[in-house]
Every structure is written in C-alpha cells, then in structure tokens.
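Reopening: Alpha/beta hydrolase still failing for me.
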Amino acid sequence: MVQLLALQGYSVHKFIPFLLLIVSLVPFSLQAENHEYEVSKVEYKNLVANLYLPKTEEKLPVVIAFGGFEGGLDTGNANGEMIAPHGVAVLGLAYFKEKGISQTLDQIPMEYFIEAINYLENHPLIDSSKIGVVGGSRGSEAAFLLASMDSRIKSVVVTTPSKVAWYGLTMPKSAWTIDGQDIPALGLELDSNAKLIDRFTVALENKTNVNKSLFKFENINGPILMISAENDQVWPSFQMSKDIEVYLKSKQFKHKIVHNSYKTGHGFSKETAPEIKKSIINHFVSTL
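Support: Ran it again with your exact input. Result attached.
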C-alpha cells in the first residue's frame, strides 16, 4: 500500500478546532474565580506566542496551549481566554502558519516547544514547578511528545488524541523532529478516495509500525486528561484513548488518568462544549 501524508487533501473547514468551537459558542464561567488578566506578545528567540497573565501578587501556574491542523495562534489564544480567568496563566503558542516559523505542519522541531518551557521557567511571574500542556487533534501529538520528553511538564490535557506520531501535511516525512532526526511516524494507507477514518484505521493495523511510532506515555510526569469523540470520522480518537489507558495501566503509571468520551464527531458539539470546557479548566486548576 502507498504511504500518504497525514490529512493531505482534507478540507480545512471540516477540521474545526475544538476550543474555538467551545469558546465561540458557549458563554461559560466556573463559580470559583474570575481573575482579570493581561495579554502580552512574547519576545523570546523565535517563539510566536501570547502570554495570558492573571493579575495576582503570587507566582502563577501556567499552561502551554496550541492547536492542531489549523495552525496559527487562534486556538492558543482561545485557551488563554478560557483558562486565564481562573487564575492559571496561558502561553498561547503557534508552531506553524505564522511569520518566522514553518508555514506547514512538517518537520516541526520539538526543541521549539522545549524553548517555550525554558521561557516560562525564567519568567519572574511564573511558578516553573507548575507547567501544563494542552493540545487537540494533531496538537495532541506535540503535547504527548513534549510531556514525555520533558519532565517539567506536570499536567496534560489532550482532545481527540492520537497515540502515535504521523507524517506531516506536505511531505512524506514525520511531522516532528528532535536533534535534527525524524521522530518515528506513520503515513496514511489507502488512497485519497477512501474515507479519512478508514485511511487512519488501516494504518493503525500495522502493529510493527505502530509500536515504533507509539509515544512513551510512561515518561509523562503528571496526570493526564483525554477527551475523545466516539463518532470521530477523522481518526479513531476514542479507541486510541482506550489503548493509551490500557498501555499506561500495563506500565503501572503512577499518575491519575481520566478519559472522558462523547458521542460526537471530531469537533465535538455545542451541547457537549460546556462540560468539556469545565473539565479542562478543573483539570488544570486542580493539578497545577
């Protein structure tokens, strides 16, 4: 079978960033707190990011937030608007499709994300012992990779996640690199006439390739919240989340694992948005 690029030829409008959907459709606030916050553009090396800082005299926990297939800053910014009012700072990060960085989801160096941690570790208003990460869809790959590579990440949220790394969008190579080398990744099987969910599902049937591309979840240094879609028509996020649960239990993972699933498609829905939003905020407030 022909190895094809992950999501090549897929319509962008079908790949709705889940947090943009949640924030735009659902006015919502937890009863606990409502902090005012300031937003500033990050000036550090080649990072493209905005920092959302709640106003307080104490050092703050922080979440590194980024999107998936859509690229840019919008999803990171949506996270900032959602989480910062609850007393947790947010670094809304772009890793492609912005000036000065890659324009496509191809060969993204994980060192870029590690530099984001370095920036936060040296920020005078951030508690560097309390850093989390949130990523959705293809961003879940970066979130899992980062958390498994760097123990400074202490809490993880992923939505419609993958358990493995995939090829990039425009070239038959891994979407991710470390030390200049490709991180093992899968390409899509079947041709572009097949349903996307079938192309991912068939690729995941190759156990040898899956084992090579599987994230080292056992190295993650904190609790994990996974949010999946039972009727996902992009990739099987529900089954992959269940597989991650089984894997971590087999490794006697010492941190808490929560998997919440919804009977929706990849982008979730207006009806499920309030509960999803609340669970993400509560996860970070309680674990950082």
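The first strand starts at residue 37 and ends at 41. If you still see a failure, please send the error message rather than a screenshot.
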